[in-house]
Structures are given as C-alpha cells and as structure tokens.
Design goal:
By secondary structure, this protein is mainly α. It has three helices and no strands.
Length: 90
C-alpha cells in the first residue's frame, strides 16, 4: 500500500471519528434533555456522553492498531479521539 493511501485512510478515520462523536453526543444530549430543563443541563448531558464514549473509541483505535491490515485506520481513530479531547477541554 502506498504512503499516500495510508495517509488518506488515517485522515478519513479521524474525520469519521470526529463526526461520529459529535453526532452521538448531540443525539444523546437531545434524547435526555427535557424542554423544561435548563440549558446548562443539556451541556452536562453532552459532556457526559463525550466522557463515556471517548474511552470506547480509544480502545477501538488501539485494538485496530494491533491488526496490520487496519493499523492506519486505528491511528486515525486515535488522532480523531485526541483532537476531540483537546477541543473538549478548552
């Protein structure tokens, strides 16, 4: 496999990870939030979903890096998870 293809796989995996995390976090926050709750509670639900989902994603990425055929996809997942963590802590 060419190095260009490896970079494309890693980049695509990072972008899919970011999109999936954002979508799942928003879906969970919207499902748990009731209209009479304060907006601060919606933010709490969003952050809670992110905290619960991030270790699962990191574990999946780590497991994929151990498999030679999916090593670059696993690295992309780990990069996407790291970016989400950096963005979320700011």
């Amino acid at each position: 496999m060419s190095s260009r293809m490896k970079i494309m796989q890693s980049t695509a995996a990072a972008l899919v990870t970011i999109g999936a995390h954002t979508g799942v976090n928003l879906a969970v926050a919207d499902a748990l939030w009731v209209g009479r709750d304060s907006p601060a509670e919606w933010v709490f639900y969003h952050a809670s979903a992110a905290c619960l989902l991030l270790p699962v994603t990191a574990t999946l990425g780590w497991l994929l890096t151990r498999w030679s055929r999916a090593r670059h996809i696993g690295r992309g997942i780990l990069v996407g998870a790291a970016l989400l963590h950096l963005i979320g802590t700011r």
